[in-house]
């Protein structure tokens, strides 16, 4: 049995401690130890963005980070984007624009979009496309996703 290590995190504003193996990814700790299943495992190589979480305000592929490396960090998952028990403006925009298709990539897309809006509250369409470039959608819903991000940023697309 691998050695287990305590990892102290602040997840979605709440302090949490988990015991993890030294080889366990942050994604696995979030999904299996903390029961936060919004972040998805897909490629496990950092290529698809389905596992995107915020570390501070920065988007990170949680499949590429060992849980022990996250000790002491502040994380936000898609579950933490809600606002007082309601969907965030960004999440509502995804629904309004029909940007949620199968839903598999959407949590990572929404988190990556939040990171973009944290850095650039008034992005152009090009900014949004570049900001979401690390997230893949196999249902090919990119235009609706871009439109949703622009709507959330008060930049209603043409």
User: What portion of residues belong to β-strands?
Assistant: 15-25%
**SSE sequence, one letter per element:** EEHEEEHHHH
Report how far the terminal alpha carbons are from each other: 57 Å
Helix content: 25-40%
Low-confidence stretches are none
Question: Mean pLDDT score, rounded?
Answer: 94
Number of strands: 5
Instruction: Label the structural class.
Output: alpha+beta
Radius of gyration: 16 Å
Shape call: globular
- Sheet with the most strands: spatial strand order: 2-1-5-3-4
Main sheet makeup: 5 strands, mixed
The helix tally amounts to: 5
Q: Can you describe this structure?
A:
With 158 residues, this protein is an alpha+beta fold. It has five helices and five strands, in the order ββαβββαααα. The model has no long low-confidence stretch (mean pLDDT 94).
List the helices and strands and how they pair.
Layout: E1 4-11, E2 14-21, H1 26-33, E3 52-55, E4 58-61, E5 74-76, H2 89-96, H3 106-119, H4 125-131, H5 142-152
Parallel strand pairs: 1-5
Antiparallel strand pairs: 1-2, 3-4, 3-5
Helix pairs in contact: 2-5
Task: Name a few traits of the molecule.
single chain, 158 residues, alpha+beta, five-stranded mixed sheet, 5 helices
Task: Quickly describe the structure.
The chain has 158 residues and is α+β, with helices and mostly antiparallel strands.
């Amino acid at each position: 049995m691998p050695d287990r290590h305590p990892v102290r995190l602040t997840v979605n504003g709440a302090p949490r401690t988990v015991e993890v193996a030294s080889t366990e990814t942050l994604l696995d700790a979030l999904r299996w130890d903390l029961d936060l299943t919004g972040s998805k495992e897909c490629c496990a190589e950092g290529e698809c963005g389905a596992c995107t979480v915020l570390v501070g305000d920065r988007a990170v592929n949680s499949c590429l980070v060992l849980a022990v490396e996250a000790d002491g960090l502040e994380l936000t998952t898609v579950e933490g984007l809600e606002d007082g028990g309601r969907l965030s403006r960004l999440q509502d925009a995804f629904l309004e624009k029909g940007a949620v298709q199968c839903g598999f990539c959407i949590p990572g897309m929404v988190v990556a979009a939040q990171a973009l809006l944290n850095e650039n509250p008034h992005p152009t369409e090009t900014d949004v496309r570049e900001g979401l470039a690390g997230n893949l959608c196999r249902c090919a819903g990119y235009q609706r996703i871009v439109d949703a991000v622009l709507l959330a940023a008060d930049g209603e697309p043409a």
